[in-house]
Amino acid sequence: MKSKVNTLRALSHYAMKRLSAEKFEHTVFIGGPAHSGTSIITRIVSSHKDFFCPDNELEIYRGKRLNHIIRFAKLSWNAQLSAKTKTLEKSPANILYCNTLRRVAPSCKFIFIIRDFRDVVASQKKRFQGEIAKPIQNWQQSAEVFHNECGAADVHQIRYEDFVENPKSTIRGILKFLHCDFEVNILDFHQREVNWFGQSNVRKGSGVGLNEHRALRNWQVNQPIFDGRGRWREGLTEDEKAYLKDHPISDLAKQFGYEW
């Protein structure tokens, strides 16, 4: 077992040495609170001719540093095989582990997304079958990092609501940050069907439980951009609204323009 680990370590370090600083600069990680729009932003940007993007969330930050290196080396190898010039990977928790990713891929860049906490909680509530404690904690942790990373040279931040209001402007801003030309047909991404999250076909899952959640996400990234703002008004009970209004999360949310 020890010999196998040493072999993997040697191979991963060799792979990392083969990756130049330029490759690191062309690596982009997308993150934000779960259900904040990370999937749709990834789908659109990955439609650009320059980008290679895996069809699943790799969660490169999981486990020990050796695991990080191996996952990133594999991602970069696949990107090179694709002949694309830039690499894009989306895992919502990338925002929580951005410093880990910076150590794995120096000079990488980040796209961080924030969304109204009430809509996030209402959306995740369905996935977790009525539970709201976990969605609240997830949004709060991500929002704190979003706030702390404001102004970082390697980070571009967007609000989901601004994206829905003006998709073209938002995507232009992202591509400018990544030094890419805007492509006129990039917002027609839905005209080319894809299968992400281990799905073999496009179907509208119920969103309840992991498998149905993945099916729903895959369906959503194959649809035109739709407006998911304000769904909390119907998706939360009056008691849940009152609880969130008095929760410290509401004070944090005000910094991003989300007020009652």
Describe this structure in words.
- With 260 residues, the chain is an alpha/beta fold.
- The N and C termini lie far apart (56 Å).
- β2, α4 and β3 form a beta-alpha-beta unit.
- The chain is globular, with a radius of gyration of 19 Å.
- Strands 2-3-1-4-5 form a 5-stranded parallel beta sheet, sandwiched between helices.
- It has a single domain, classed as Rossmann fold (3-Layer(aba) Sandwich), CATH 3.40.50.
- It contains 13 helices and 5 strands.
- α6 packs across α7.
List the helices and strands and how they pair.
Blueprint lengths: L1 H17 L2 H5 L1 E5 L6 H9 L4 E2 L12 H18 L3 E5 L7 H7 L4 E6 L2 H11 L5 H16 L6 E5 H6 L1 H11 L32 H11 L11 H4 L2 H9 L2 H6 L6
Parallel strand pairs: 1-3, 1-4, 2-3, 4-5
In short:
The protein is 50% helix and 9% strand. With 260 residues, the chain is of the alpha/beta class.
Strand segment count: 5
Total of domains? 1
- Beta-strand fraction estimate: 5-15%
Query: How many helical stretches?
Result: 13
Biggest beta sheet attributes: 5 strands, parallel
Order of helices and strands: HHEHEHEHEHHEHHHHHH
Helical percentage: 40-55%
Q: What is the CATH class designation?
A: Alpha Beta
Q: Any idea what the shape is? A: globular
The overall pLDDT, averaged over residues, is: 91
Structural class: alpha/beta
Q: CATH H-level name... which superfamily?
A: P-loop containing nucleotide triphosphate hydrolases
- CATH architecture descriptor name: 3-Layer(aba) Sandwich
Under CATH, the topology is which? Answer: Rossmann fold
Unreliable parts: none
Lateral arrangement of strands in the main beta sheet: 2-3-1-4-5
Radius of gyration over all CA atoms, rounded: 19 Å
Span between termini? 56 Å
